[in-house]
Design brief:
The protein is mainly alpha-helical. Helix 2 packs antiparallel against helix 3 and helix 4 runs antiparallel to helix 6. It is globular. The mean pLDDT is 89.
Length: 137
């Protein structure tokens, strides 16, 4: 499967996530909701890896540590902020502002990894960010 197809599939999953969090409303504290999500995802992935014989400690290395840190920052902390934003401000505003991350990621990748930025990727990241900012006005 091509990378762009995987990215679109991720976008569909994230859109569904936003709608499900909105459906939960304020009946569950976003911190507790985030914990439920983390636990459920952990159980699902652990079961899948165990069933396919891929669960083991042999993969623990620096790359694995980066994935752990990414999970803590993105899934645990980031999702808490995301869920709380959706609960307090609704889906449209929260998702649009959260979608400004491409510009932040692009700038960081330039500084950390010296990745080249094309006019097309810069314009796309800027337009996504401006779209989110328009909703604040």
């Amino acid at each position: 499967m091509e990378g762009w197809q995987l990215a679109l599939m991720a976008a569909v999953c994230w859109a569904a996530e936003a709608l499900l969090v909105r459906m939960a409303g304020d009946r569950v504290d976003p911190l507790i909701g985030t914990a439920y999500s983390c636990v459920a995802a952990g159980i699902m992935f652990s079961a899948y890896l165990a069933l396919t014989g891929r669960l083991g400690v042999g993969e623990l290395n620096m790359s694995a540590a980066y994935y752990v840190l990414a999970g803590v920052i993105s899934f645990a902390v980031g999702h808490y902020f995301y869920y709380a934003a959706i609960t307090r401000s609704g889906v449209s505003l929260s998702v649009s502002l959260a979608a400004s991350y491409p510009l932040l990621a692009m700038l960081a990748s330039v500084m950390l990894f010296k990745e080249p930025v094309t006019l097309r990727t810069a314009a796309g990241a800027l337009l996504i960010t401006l779209g989110g900012l328009v909703l604040l006005i």
